[in-house]
Amino acid sequence: MKRAIMRIISLGAVACVATGAALASEFGDDGYQFLNITPSSHVYAIGGQNISLVDDDITMVNQNPALLGQEMHLQLGLNYMRYLGQSNFMGLTFGVKAWERGAFAATIQHFGYGSMTTAGPDGVITGKISPRDLSFGIVYSHDITDMLRGGIAVKGISSAYGEYKAFAIATDLGINYYNPDNDLSLSFVIKSLGGQVKKFDNTADKLPWDIQLGYSQMLRSVPIRLNVTATNLRRWKMPYYARVDNNDTQSAYALKHNFGSDLLRHLVFGVEFVPSERFYVGIGYNYKTRTDMSTDKRSFFSGFSLGGGVNIKMIGVGVALAQPHSGGTTFMVNLRCDISQFLRQ
Q: Which of 30, 31, 60, 312 has the fewest CB atoms within 10 Å, measured from its CB?
């Protein structure tokens, strides 16, 4: 136990040295928003943000490092998302158990935005570029008690937009409490602490660091699981622009915020039907996504997401759909493989 605690402290000390400046930064427009896009189809199905869902899915550790455990030994997770426009995101996560109560995972995520035409100040076409972001890192978790688990993730982030390149380091710190008797899960996570090591130019882009709380609970009488995730807890006010008169497309825009809208923009809701450990169907609602992506021709489905998954022996497959904007629908698929079961045969 002492050795495990020292490992966590050592990793935390390294992370804090690399990322401590983030806590002192002023609020403003954060870059690196792709870090908020989950690689888990299960999470994407129930709103796109969840840090408390205890599931046999290795891609969940990208949401909360404390969701990694020895039960994910030799599990490989592959993810692919067709995002808006020409964007395609993909990655993999692999886990192994470590010592008596710990586990490690390695993860890599690639965010590609398709081909874009470039031009000079005079408007003359100069060629094409394929901008991309790449995130890669190591996750470590430790079972503090039978119900309490802590975790840390350290990530490198490489960005290349034509001739402009940057590199950043980020850290996630998480803790999870899980009571299997009540199927109750509570989590606390600090995400994306860090900063740029190499800037695009003379201006530093801030990481979208965040404080989150999560709650997941299976109901006793029916196979329904409720999920609520509170995000953006580093600040209360979450204003957004909306038309003064929703019935008039010529109406001016005004900054909108009140207690109700601020509260809802902090919360992500998810409901799942889970008749067995091998199957689930989930639906989510993210009010912040709906208000951020609103247009004069707002889609009814904006802010909603839907998906499901099935586990068959050593293989698990999950899919999710969402239409965050009226201009396009997003699709995600996950494939999970439990290599340890193959080795037992």
A: 312
Concatenated DSSP letters of 88-157: EEEEEEEEEEETTTEEEEEEEEEEE---EEEE-TT--EEEEE--EEEEEEEEEEEESSSSEEEEEEEEEE
Arithmetic mean of pLDDT over the chain: 84
CA distance 282 to 306: 6
At residue 205 the predicted structure's pLDDT band, cuts being 50, 70 and 90, is confident
Label residue 248 by pLDDT band (50, 70, 90). low
Nearest to 294 by CA among 259, 260, 246, 238: 246
Structure tokens at 310: 């099935």
* 190-212 average pLDDT score: 89
DSSP structural state of residue 262: H
> Under a CB-based contact definition with an 8 Å cutoff, are residues 282 and 268 in contact?
no
**Domains with residue ranges and CATH for the chain:** 2-118+126-344 (2.40.160.40)
Cα separations in angstroms, 304 against 2, 278, 290, 318: 45, 24, 8, 17
Residue 186 near residue 215, CB atoms below 8 Å: yes
User: What pLDDT was estimated at residue 44?
Assistant: 94
pLDDT at 73 over 50: yes
* Identity of the residue numbered 99: W
Distances (CA, A) of 277 to 245, 280, 338: 47, 8, 15
How far is the C-alpha of 306 from the C-alpha of 320, rounded, in Å? 6
